[in-house]
Specification:
Number of strands: 12
Bound molecules: pyridoxal-5'-phosphate
Number of helices: 14
Distance between the termini: 58 Å
Strand content: 5-15%
Radius of gyration: 21 Å
Length: about 400
């Protein structure tokens, strides 16, 4: 049974939506969202079963298609994002792959920003071409580069903003307008911004994807992904692909993620506040050659950040003097920040992109994306800002 609050939700604040939206209560009237660990559902009779399969009667059928706990997560995410529909997936990469595969056919062409998470680049550069889909990678910050890459068969634009790990910011509204003008769809990977700080659909994007593994879980417990768009987009491009090919989210993970959404605004506001303090402090340290943080006036796209984001980021990118050796000395001296490639976690994490997430690229391709050997990505957690600053002070002294 949907909760009575559902009818009020569109007018409520995000913080309220994230505690209540999508709640389905069973006959037991439980306070908290129930975990439905069932692979399927039973029917009163064969006629009902047929009606469910025909879509004439709403209801659950099989967990590869939908599940009550997963449906609660999808509804809550849709309310948060301001989207008509959402579909959950097993991982963020399953969401990216499903969104692109659902949209593209052999003979189509995709234009993507070159500054992308390594696995997203793999899907676009290596996986899609195996099925006859060509791609062009562009400097996403230059609108003219998107324009110049358009071909008669361009069907999809794909971007990440801020990008992993360089925190490059792209003007989503401008790219969305260009996509619309040629009848292409814009898909935005909004992982780094989180739905709290950026709403790509409101800026004109057609589809938003997340790795729920990151800030949405926020406590490093489970993998997940989600695709958000209009009802029509989901029904036309995504629903059947997911149902027939099977990258479904586990109900257990949906239950963990529902719990996590209740605290997402508290976590992200606090983590962003700490990241802003640390970024300003790091920018003044002699060992730091370059500091990139979307909340600072010296960010290369500071004006776009102000226009399209409600807040900056929980992530900081810093380029250390002394390349890989200096970056490794810095990472090895950290005691509170731990070396890990996850991000958006309650625990502060640090990673060296050139030897991890972007290791499979040539040094030239990495340089093209702005990933130098001295670059370190920090994901700021929930620890006390003073303790984190002391940790960074120790690590900088080792550089
Ligand atoms: C920007 C971005 N997109 C997608 C993904 C993939 O997410 P997952 O690990 O949940 O598949 C990641 C993971 O780091 C990411 O940073």
């Amino acid at each position: 049974m949907p909760a009575p609050i559902e009818s009020l939700l569109p007018d409520l604040h995000e913080d309220t939506q994230l505690v209540h939206a999508g709640t389905l209560r069973s006959q037991f009237g439980e306070t908290s969202e129930a975990l439905f660990l069932t692979q399927g559902h039973i029917y009163e009779n064969a006629e009902q079963c047929e009606a469910r399969f025909l879509g004439e009667e709403s209801g659950f059928i099989y967990a590869r298609f939908s599940n009550p706990t997963v449906a609660m997560f999808e509804k809550r995410m849709a309310a948060f994002e301001g989207a008509e529909a959402a579909r959950a997936t097993a991982t963020g990469m399953a969401a990216v792959t499903a969104a692109l595969t659902g949209l593209l056919r052999a003979g189509d062409h995709v234009v993507a920003a070159r500054a992308l998470f390594g696995s997203c680049r793999y899907v676009i550069e290596e996986h899609l071409p195996r099925f006859g889909v060509d791609s062009t990678l562009v400097n996403g910050t230059e609108l003219a580069a998107w324009q110049a890459a358009i071909r008669p068969n361009t069907k999809v634009f794909f971007l990440e903003s801020p990008a992993n790990p360089t925190l490059e910011v792209i003007d989503i509204e401008a790219v969305a307008k260009l996509a619309k003008s040629i009848g292409a769809k814009l898909v935005v990977d909004n992982v780094f911004a989180t739905p709290l700080w950026q709403k790509p659909l409101a800026l004109g994007a057609d589809c938003v994807v997340y790795s729920a593994t990151k800030h949405i879980d926020g406590q490093g417990r489970c993998l997940g992904g989600v695709i958000l768009a209009s009802n029509e987009f989901i029904q036309t491009h995504i629903h059947t692909f997911l149902r027939q090919t099977g990258p479904a989210m586990s109900p257990f993970n949906a239950w963990v993620l529902l719990k996590a959404l209740e605290t997402l605004p508290l976590r992200i506001r606090r983590q962003t506040g700490t990241a802003s303090i640390l970024a300003d402090w790091l920018a003044d340290q002699g060992q730091v050659r370059k500091l990139i943080y979307p909340g600072r006036a010296d960010h290369p796209q500071a004006e776009i950040v102000r226009r399209q984001m409600g807040g900056p980021s929980t992530l900081i990118a810093l380029e250390l003097e002394g390349g890989k050796a200096a970056a490794f000395r810095f990472l090895n001296a950290l005691k509170i920040f731990r070396i890990s490639n996850n991000l958006g976690d309650a625990k502060s994490l640090a990673v060296h992109p050139a030897t991890t997430t972007h290791q499979r690229f040539t040094p030239e391709a990495r340089a093209d994306m702005g990933i130098g050997d001295g670059l370190v990505r920090l994901s700021v957690g929930l620890e006390h800002p003073g303790d984190l600053r002391a940790d960074l002070t120790r690590a900088l002294a080792a550089v």
